[in-house]
Amino acid sequence: MPEHAPSSLLKKALERRELTLMLLLVVLLVPITIRSPQFLSAENINRILNDMAILSIVAIGMFYVILSNGIDLSVGSIIAFTGMACGMINESHPSVSPLVLLLVGMLIGLLMGLLNGVLVAYGKIPPIITTLGTVNIYRGLTFVLSKGTWVTAHEMTPSYIGFPRTTFLGISYLLWIAFVVIAVFYYFSRFTRTGREVYAIGGNPTAAKFVGVNENRVRVVVFLISGTLCGLAGALWTARYASAVNEMATGFEMQAVAACVLGGVNFSGGAGGIIGVVLGTLFLGVVTNALPVVYLSVFWQTLVQGLIILIALALNTLSDQRKSAKLLAQRRG
Amino acid sequence: MKKALLFVLIASLVVTGLFAQGAKEQAVKSEKEIVILVKSMGNAFFDAVFKGSQEAAAELGGIKTTYMGPPQATAEGQIEIIETLIAQRVAGIAISANDADALIPVTKKAMAAGIKVISFDSGINVGGRIVDLLPSNAELIGRQQIQLAAELTGSKGDVAVLSASAQATNQNLWINWMKEEIKDAKYANMKLVEVVYGDDAPDKSYREAVSLMQKYPNLKAIICPTTVGLLATAQAVKDAGKAGIVEVTGLGLPSEMKGYILDGTCRQMALWNPIDLGYTSTYILNGLIDGTVKGTAGESIPAGRMDSMKVEKDGIIYMGYPYVFNKDNVEQFTF
């Protein structure tokens, strides 16, 4: 079990995939900066962080589901439904403040996550099947809700559109929210009973049950977290892109999964950390934002993006294997 | 005896009723009845098409236009409606088809029953309609996009295109004509630097627009021949504080772009005007029903304020340049 006590956090973190990923990030930044020097400007870094804020929120939700040995394919659809709902509320009730909209988004997301969780935990339907169903149900509900129409910038209030752009101490509200989410869930993962139980269920469900972990409860909780964070992301998404479109966030689940896996989260559950997920998101952010500015043909970008992710993953896994081989040798010796 | 009498009485009542019904239908038929059959109900674009049709009907007189469409955009729903219209013996149908081929058998049946069938906006293939009215053609659309950008920038500086997906057929055709138009000597100081793709996703389009501004310091305009891309680009340019420095233009729905047009981020853009489409369709149907035109290639069909429509090969009619929207007219349009 690659788990560790909170006290040796820094040392352990640096030993693990997080370090490899950080090194890769630096390696990646060198050629990008040579080709496009303004890439490392403060303004651009701020832009990339803002661009990745929503993904980091969703990826953290996805992290808990993967950690419990599940997957949530419905995240994009939850974002779309909550984003559309918030956009429509903002259009019909302009007096409702953006903060209330965020809460409404989270509440709707929570309910959608609850359905996912109950189906998985009590319906005993595997997460991939459950969310393969709900991804379409929630997307369909978005169309039903909007009757196929959009909400666009001029139908929304300036305070809602301006919300993620407003800055406090030079940092946008959008980023602040992402920071708070990261901090809250960092604490949740490391220092709360439920947070630790997610690791236990994902790592060894049988053992976890023997020590009294309520498996069903944990499975519901992870989907609740994912749903609620997607709801928050949806409310922010509509404001940030100043439009609520039915097709929004299609395929976003893949980006969230990629951020987790890049960040060293074990795909079969039980291992990984919030810092890794944040670094994975950042890595994706640098790749997706750098490729369009390095004068690379658009037709090559998708391919190169895939290659970089694959290489990063391969290097990550390799360093992991070497470490466990070392560990094994030590034990034998 | 009493029973027999009652039977005769009832029978005669029923028969008289039927005749009366027939007579009433006859009366309605003296007014030419046409139907604007759209992809689905509840779409502001088609509401505007019908408005145009009503305008033309009022000008022409003696013609009654009705607006119909299935609740969902399916070919099956349209086929069902056409079957009913054949039974009702309407004079003409103008269809924006959900499927270019699937409607052909039923529209053939309608034409065999003497109903004049044309398609508009989203056409039916040859054989399934008399003429197909297209809002514009790729050449006019593409060339106009460069003209719009040139007007905004004074024909100077770098221009980029932010399109839908890399394999969007329409957009690619239009972009090829943009590249053709910009070769003209009058655009000597204007350079089309890159075509990027936002995949009609707001987030990707936004990101691509920001990248374009970063990559080309001399960028003066971004052309987005797709409404999602246009919305996202306008927001990205606005967020970067570059409204008026980087001009935004393209093809977009006025209802969605209204905010950016009024605040000056996108000073002008184009789109086919659905009011004109409905108006022209109605004139064409009227001519076909009266028999003054046949819809054969080379023919000119009078179309009121839209002048005349020339029928090209395969019964295709191109209405003209897309309509240009700006802050002075955008608020009149609800689609």
What can you tell me about this protein's structure?
The complex is a heterodimer of chains A (333) and B (335). Chain A is mostly helical. Helix content of chain A is 73%, strand content 2%. Chain A has a two-stranded antiparallel ribbon. In chain A, strands 2-3 form a two-stranded antiparallel ribbon. In chain A, strand 2 and strand 3 form a beta hairpin. In chain A, helix 3 runs parallel beside helix 8 and helix 9 crosses helix 11. The longest helix of chain A has 35 residues. Chain A is globular, with a radius of gyration of 20 Å. In chain B, a hairpin with a 5-residue loop joins strand 11 and strand 12. Chain B is elongated and about 95 Å long. Chains A and B meet through helix 3 of A and strand 7, helix 7, helix 8 and helix 9 of B.
Q: What is the spatial order of strands in the main beta sheet of chain A? A: 1-4
Helix count of chain A equals 14
The H-level CATH homologous superfamily of the largest domain in chain B, spelled out, is: Response regulator
* CATH T-level fold name of the largest domain in chain B: Rossmann fold
Query: Alpha-carbon distance between the termini of chain B?
Result: 67 Å
Mean pLDDT of chain A: 87
End-to-end distance of chain A = 20 Å
- CATH fold node name of chain A: ABC transporter involved in vitamin B12 uptake, BtuC
Q: Give the ordered list of helices and strands of chain B.
A: HEHEHEHEEHEHEHEHEHEHEEEE
Looking at the overall shape, the CATH architecture of the largest domain in chain B is 3-Layer(aba) Sandwich
Q: How many DSSP E strands of chain A?
A: 4
What is the fold's blueprint, element by element?
The complex is a heterodimer of chains A (333) and B (335).
Chain A: H1 9-15, H2 17-35, H3 42-67, H4 75-92, H5 98-121, H6 127-146, E1 151-152, H7 158-162, E2 167-168, E3 171-172, H8 173-191, H9 193-203, H10 205-210, H11 215-240, E4 243-244, H12 252-262, H13 274-290, H14 298-332
Antiparallel strand pairs in A: 1-4, 2-3
Helix pairs in contact in A: 2-13, 2-14, 3-8, 3-11, 3-12, 3-13, 4-5, 4-6, 4-11, 5-6, 5-11, 8-9, 9-11, 12-13
Chain B: H1 2-29, E1 32-37, H2 44-60, E2 63-68, H3 75-88, E3 92-95, H4 104-112, E4 116-120, E5 132-134, H5 138-153, E6 157-163, H6 169-181, E7 190-197, H7 202-215, E8 219-224, H8 227-239, E9 247-250, H9 254-262, E10 268-271, H10 274-290, E11 300-302, E12 308-310, E13 316-318, E14 323-326
Parallel strand pairs in B: 1-2, 1-3, 3-4, 4-5, 5-13, 6-7, 6-8, 8-9
Antiparallel strand pairs in B: 10-14, 11-12
